[in-house]
Amino acid sequence: MNTMVVKAYPLGVAHMINGNVDDDGESRMELAVGLEFDSADEAREFYGLYAMRVGFKIRTGQLYRSRTDGSVSSRRFVCSKEGFQLNSRTGCPAFIRVQRRDSGKWVIDQIQKDHNHELGTAGESSSPILLQKPPVVTKSLVEVLHRPKVKLLGQIDYGGPSPSGVINFKRQKRGGDGGQSIAQPYIGLEFNTANEAYAYYQAYAEDTGFRVRIGQLFRSKNDGSITSRRFVCSKEGFQHPSRVGCGAFMRIKRKDSGSWMVDRLRKDHNHDLEMHTVYQKKLSTASKKFIEEEAGGMVSVDLGEMNNGKLIRRSRESKIGNDWYSVLLEYFQTRQAEDTGFFYSVEVDNGSCRSVFWADGRSRFSCSQFGDVIIFDTSYRKSNYVVPYATFVGLNHHKQPVLLGSALIANESKESFTWLFQTWFRAMSRGHPKSIIADQDIAIQQAVAEVFPGTHHRFSLWQIRAKEQENFRSMPIEFKHEYEKCIYQSQTTVEFNTTWNSLINKYSLKENVWLKYMYEKRESWVPLYLRGKFFAGIPIGQSFESFFGTQLDGQTPLRGFVSRYEQGLEQRREEERKEDLNSFNLQAFLQTKEPIEEQCRRLYTFTIFKIFQDELLQSYSYIGIKTYEEGTISRYVVRRSGNENDKHAVTFSTINLSVNCSCQMFEFEGVLCRHVLKVFKLLDIRELPSQYILCRWMRNAEYRILCCAESGISSQELKAFMVWSLRETACKYVECGDGIYRKI
């Protein structure tokens, strides 16, 4: 047989020319900045051919995502000996990076040709990849009666009329070779729904001779709704031996009208096509629930493929690179040997590693004290990210953030978030938080409701702000002022509803889908509805900083991840130790001669006492008037001197000295407000009742077992608290002794 030689062109297309290469074949395979490709797959293919000629192998390296829609904006292809995760790797620096331009083309913008190892013989590194065009089929769009036995992805009814220019696809009955062919896809082809597009591409694939998988989906950064989807050849990628990196795909994009349009398409395959394929008559449950949430939800797609008549379950795609698992597991095992309280868990799906969760003993101990309010921080989604790193964060007795757990999220689906929350719940002695601050995606909302029933879910501010900018861009300044006043200054539900409806009618916004949705979810983001829930005083109208700041985020590479994680964590804990020291050794100046001030200085941490002291001083500017009294109940109106609008109602009961104020500061922050303190002054109450001094704000919060033993917690919870307290105390003594020993 003649030797087959391949010639590579800059666009990544491999051509055979009578078994020989043109004279300029090698020169056309030289790397150069500015070299352009139709897709990232073509760039990888070209680099693979170049590597074969030079004498090395390649791997797919890091990818970077767009800040706006999460799509891949650049990719690195590296020498197979890059990194040090395996003994065979030498940290080779050779690579190319391709970046996506606005035109959709991919251009090489960075190159490193030098290797730090010996190169093999040219041509031995890999086998060439030949591109083959699919068989040509007649362009005809057929529409036949719906077959009840074949229901695709949600049992869609295709019998109704379609809007002009929108395809109304139905499953075609094939009659052997004599059957009609499915119309060829083309850019601009429209569908009523993403389900119809998927059904069409499935039928086209059957007719052409390949199978289909659901690839990437892209979401709006404002509300998380799906904006585009990719359907790819089943041989796309290299995660399985049967896959050959086929670049064929069809991408659909959602239009403003709600229909879907093909906006990107590649028909060429790099493998042989079957003349006839067996259509998948059965689909997994998840693929039938190919849900599109208008409000912005996450979906999990778990397709099944037919193999000899049997349904094979395919694992959901993971956003975590394979290299991460081995490095993290090695780190976890090392930490577990040093810290008996270290916990980690890996989600396994169909034999593949997926999401990862871990927390050391200190984080678990902190959760027993400060796990009543948690922030689930997925801010990696705001920008390009290499790894989907998320954190569980609490607020300690100094109002400092404390780490309550870390995670890598393989897939932003309800199943992934549910597994993650359940794992956190199990690791943290099964303590339910009172409230959680997390993104508003449907998948997260569903997971929170399932794992933490009764926990109040408050939406993260960044998503709301982004969506406001998108929806209000064309609105006048007057609307924005009225909107802000409605949201942040409404004092009662009646006032809020009246002002909201007036605003909607005045500016003709009844058909605004996002505003309708946000009104339905008002209890999760409007300050009026959040004031009565405990959030440890975390401000409603402000974004909170990531626990690790810029030291560790979704763009941190694998090589520096563990070291940056430990450095950032130690820095935060050192800050906490300093505040502990200040609270026990420093005393704030008293501003009054009130016994109540001395009591709180003795009990509260320095930070919390300053908050209380400010409220106490402010109370001197208010006037309290009794308006009602019957039996043990009395009511007061407390208003600021000279300001009739700044007033609140305080209700007091002589039974257990219980009190509540309409400002709800104690319910939200756990510190009594100036209005209540004014009433206490009128009633000559000289010390705060014990129920209004939260254990979590006290100086000895770390050792608050005894003071909370009478708060109604179960014996099992009390035992868990005691175990963690003893363990943490012992660890501190060991660390202290170790430090003294090292100095000696």
From TrEMBL:
Keyword Transport appears in the UniProt entry: no
Any one GO cellular component localisation term in the record: nucleus
Subcellular location, record wording: Nucleus
GO BP annotations listed: regulation of DNA-templated transcription
Spans through the membrane: none
GO MF terms, alphabetically ordered: zinc ion binding
SWIM-type domain sequence ranges: 636-684
Major location (coarse): nucleus
Database matches in Pfam families: FAR1 (PF03101), MULE (PF10551), SWIM (PF04434)
Keywords: Metal-binding, Nucleus, Zinc, Zinc-finger
Keyword Chloroplast attached: no
Function: Putative transcription activator involved in regulating light control of development.
Stated family: Belongs to the FHY3/FAR1 family.
Name listed for the protein in its UniProt record: Protein FAR1-RELATED SEQUENCE
Organism: Durio zibethinus (Durian)
